[in-house]
Amino acid sequence: MSAFNDALAFTLKWEGGYSNNPNDPGGATMKGVTQRVYTAYLQSHGLPNTDVRNITDDQLNDIYASEYWSPSHCQSMPAPVGVAVFDLAVNGGVGRAVKMLQSTLGVTADGIFGPGSLGALNAQTSNAADTSAFVTNYLNARENYYRTLATQNPKLQVFLKGWLNRVEALKTYLANYQPSQPA
Questions:
Q1: pTM for this entry
Q2: Which H helix or E strand runs over 145?
Q3: What mean pLDDT is predicted for residues 50-73?
Q4: What is the pLDDT of residue 183?
Q5: Do residues 63 and 37 touch, judged by C-beta distance below 8 A?
Q6: Which pLDDT score is estimated for 1?
């Protein structure tokens, strides 16, 4: 789980604390978890509903692992790829993160990470240099997505600089990435 812990640490630096920006379609959010996601989590665990500002670290970690890391199949990817996919899954949704991965791989972008996607990923990331080049291509596609999104929806322009800064920081982080030791 060291790659998950590394991915979570990076992502949390960018997700910050509580926000409820009227331009953000996610609405009320705490450390990147929306009220909608938190409410569903609480209900699925038989817990009473509460404001997302009350999320605990254990709940946060559980949500990130069960709702973003695992559904994106990041655990099946080389660590730098998994970290990049996870960060987009959190910021833009699991389906979008997987579809972008598949588009970068040149396979059918259906949002389902199955054996074909895994085989293509393994073929394109067979060594450190190939993995680094793939991550760069994936993150470049992410930048293009954000630019297109902000152009198509002008009220999202307010987020563009932050999104691009986040991707640049992720490029730097992953260019020098060394997995941490398991906790």
A1: 0.92
A2: helix 128-152
A3: 96
A4: 45
A5: yes
A6: 57
Residue 1 and residue 38: Cα distance in Å, rounded? 23
Coil, helix or strand for 107? coil
DSSP 71: T
What are 114-170's pLDDT values in tens digits? 999 999 999 999 998 999 999 999 999 999 999 999 999 998 999 999 999 999 999
Q: CA 172, 113, 13, 79 torsion: positive or negative? A: negative
Residue 49 tokens, joined: 């509903």
From CA 44, how far away is CA 133, in angstroms rounded?
A: 40
* CB 64 within 8 Å of CB 43: no
Distance of CA 36 to the CA centre of its chain: 17
**Statement: residue 87 has pLDDT above 70:** yes
Q: Are 181 and 2 in contact (CB under 8 A)?
A: yes
Beta bridge partners of 34: 29
Closest CA to 10 of 64, 48, 72: 64
